[in-house]
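Hi V.,

You were right to ask for the full record rather than a summary. Here it is.
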Amino acid sequence: MNLHARIVGELGRLIVEGVVGDGQPLVPEELGRRFSASRTVVREALRVLESKGMVTARPRVGTWTLPPEAWDAIDPDVIAWRVAGPGGREHLRELLELRLAIEPQAARMAARHRRPDELSVLAAAYALMADAVEDGDGEAFRDADSRFHAALIRAAGNTLIAQLQVPVVAALKARGEPMELVAHSRVLTLVLAKNADGAESASRRLLETVAPYR
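Predicted structure:
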């Protein structure tokens, strides 16, 4: 990780934790000393955080943090920082609620629309999950699991719903799920069988079974 990325990550985490910016401006010179970085590098990092809705910079006013309501709620970095922060458990609950609202309906639509490209990705991701379980490789399972759920959402065939794969994948990468195959297999089988009702129910049961957010 280069210095710029490290500063973005550290500042994002500190803002979520309320360590910096709580009623005080973010001064590039002070941050530069804190991170042993040039003012230019710090300013670039602050611009990244501004693009995520976490800070705002105004001429003659300075750079200030913004409240959580202003943050980009589906940005993968913001999700990871919030999950790891003081309110992480509550944020995980919110992510589960989002997934419960999205994924069962996506499974229903995937069974109806039958997009061959995404169904192939879905099946391939499941195969990788099975290999990971056999090898006892948790990291490989998390990667394949993320691919599985992202493909399921894209298979819904709706470009707006497809955008929501971003927070779902970010949630999975931030916390992960147990290496469970049976519930995933049911979703895949019912989607491929064009059973819309069954696919929706199986997806909901999958989330209620494996999502560790409660």
